């Protein structure tokens, strides 16, 4: 048995010398042609069967889309085996769609693709140019043996069924949740100062809701401007979350998940500094009170809560990714990945000396989103 030389042409070897047949060839049973290899009619029938399975897959995908819009989740009158019709229909149609594609591919490979037995000897790890070329030739041969070029019916049916599988993916995007609408642009701070109609003594009366007081986070006590000293940093929330009756807000709107949503969007940082340190932006000359400024606590990078204050510089640092905001200069970013300043809440003092919000934030709080506009301050 002659050894095979795998030298690399430079005096070295790409691998060890190995025999072309390291063990005796045990032989393989005599190759028997399949019916589809010798009978054109059976070959054509197998081709139609494969296309039929791809077609069934496409039909099931369409039925998935129909089921999604036909059956409502929770319909008790559509119960199948203890499961709702929506669950059964969606799971059954999508499962059958994938199953028929698998059956079609297996049937295709067993009846129509190449059916030759191959023996491949182990070779050194290094592949020479001849081996690489042989690999490309094998790939080309495999492509030709699939019969794709000669069987356009299978190709078209396969592409059609696979393309339709994108329909369930698009439809299911709807179940990620309802679109937010304009909820990203507003917070509960806007509840104060509005006019509403209430029933008093059987008559409709228009009243003005008091402007929203700023309360200490967790305990909910309103904050007197006179209580804050230079350098104080206070985490705050709107008083409506602790006293909804004062602002004519039903309890149902500030409980459970709704409460957590309101708290996350309305969280504030109050900071008091020397009034002369503040450099108000255009149109923000009256947004502070005796050196007290209020900013959103939500970082504009990815929404982390901010609370690290450099007292001497009045810089606010996000602990997640070190975005740094200047509280003296409209919350502008001076370092880090945040792309926008912190939204500032315009504040004032009511007739009892408590800090209140003049209005809602004039821009959305939190991280950026596609529809959001940004103007330089």
From TrEMBL:
Q: How does it sit in the membrane?
A: Multi-pass membrane protein
- Which residue windows are transmembrane per the record? 50-71, 83-106, 153-173
Q: What sequence ranges are listed for the domain Rieske?
A: 287-356
Q: What does this protein need as cofactor?
A: [2Fe-2S] cluster
Keywords for this protein? 2Fe-2S, Cell membrane, Disulfide bond, Electron transport, Iron, Iron-sulfur, Membrane, Metal-binding, Oxidoreductase, Respiratory chain, Transmembrane, Transmembrane helix, Transport
User: Where on the tree of life does the source sit, at the highest rank?
Assistant: Bacteria
* Gene3D superfamilies documented for this protein: Rieske [2Fe-2S] iron-sulphur domain (2.102.10.10)
Kindly list any coiled-coil regions of this protein.
Answer: none
Localization, per the record, is:
Cell membrane
Q: Transport: present as a keyword of the record?
A: yes
Composition bias, Basic and acidic residues? 1-11, 31-44
Q: Which CDD domains match?
A: Rieske (cd03467)
Pfam families this protein is in? QcrA_N, Rieske
Span list, region Disordered: 1-44
Q: Give the matching PANTHER family.
A: CYTOCHROME B-C1 COMPLEX SUBUNIT RIESKE, MITOCHONDRIAL
Q: What does this protein do?
A: Iron-sulfur subunit of the cytochrome bc1 complex, an essential component of the respiratory electron transport chain required for ATP synthesis. The bc1 complex catalyzes the oxidation of menaquinol and the reduction of cytochrome c in the respiratory chain. The bc1 complex operates through a Q-cycle mechanism that couples electron transfer to generation of the proton gradient that drives ATP synthesis.
Task: State the similarity comment.
Answer: Belongs to the Rieske iron-sulfur protein family.
Q: What is this protein called?
A: Cytochrome bc1 complex Rieske iron-sulfur subunit
Q: Which organism is it from?
A: Nocardioides bizhenqiangii
Q: What is the lineage of its organism?
A: Bacteria, Bacillati, Actinomycetota, Actinomycetes, Propionibacteriales
């Amino acid at each position: 048995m002659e050894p095979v030389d795998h030298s690399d042409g430079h005096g070295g070897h790409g691998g060890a010398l190995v025999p072309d047949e390291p063990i005796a060839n045990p032989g393989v049973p005599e190759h028997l042609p399949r019916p589809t290899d010798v009978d054109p009619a059976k070959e054509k029938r197998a081709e139609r069967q494969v296309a039929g399975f791809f077609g069934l897959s496409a039909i099931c995908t369409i039925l998935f889309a129909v089921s999604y819009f036909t059956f409502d989740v929770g319909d008790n009158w559509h119960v199948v085996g203890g499961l709702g019709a929506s669950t059964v229909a969606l799971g059954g149609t999508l499962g059958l769609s994938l199953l028929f594609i698998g059956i079609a591919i297996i049937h295709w490979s067993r009846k129509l693709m190449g059916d030759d037995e191959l023996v491949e000897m182990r070779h050194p790890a290094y592949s020479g140019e001849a081996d690489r070329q042989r690999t490309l030739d094998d790939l080309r041969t495999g492509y030709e043996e699939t019969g794709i070029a000669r069987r356009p019916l299978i190709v078209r049916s396969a592409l059609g069924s696979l393309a339709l599988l994108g329909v369930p993916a698009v439809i299911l995007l709807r179940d990620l949740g309802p679109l937010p609408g304009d909820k990203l642009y507003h917070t509960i701070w806007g509840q104060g100062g509005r006019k509403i109609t209430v029933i008093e003594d059987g008559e409709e009366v228009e009243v003005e809701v008091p402007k929203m007081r700023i309360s200490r986070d967790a305990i909910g006590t309103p904050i007197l401007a006179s209580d804050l000293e230079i350098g104080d940093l206070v985490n705050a929330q709107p008083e409506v979350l602790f006293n909804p009756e004062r602002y004519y807000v039903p309890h149902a709107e500030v409980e459970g998940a709704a409460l957590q949503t309101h708290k996350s969007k309305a969280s504030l940082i109050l900071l008091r500094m020397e009034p002369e340190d503040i450099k108000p932006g255009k149109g923000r000359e009256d947004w502070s009170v005796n050196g007290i400024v209020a900013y959103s606590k939500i970082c504009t990078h990815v929404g982390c809560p901010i609370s690290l204050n450099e007292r001497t510089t009045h810089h606010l640092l996000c602990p997640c990714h070190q975005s740094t905001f200047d509280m003296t200069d409209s919350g502008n970013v001076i370092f880090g990945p945040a792309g926008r300043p912190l939204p500032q809440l315009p504040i004032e003092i009511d007739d009892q000396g408590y800090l209140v919000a003049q209005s809602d934030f004039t821009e959305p709080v939190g991280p950026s989103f596609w529809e959001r506009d940004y103007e330089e301050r």
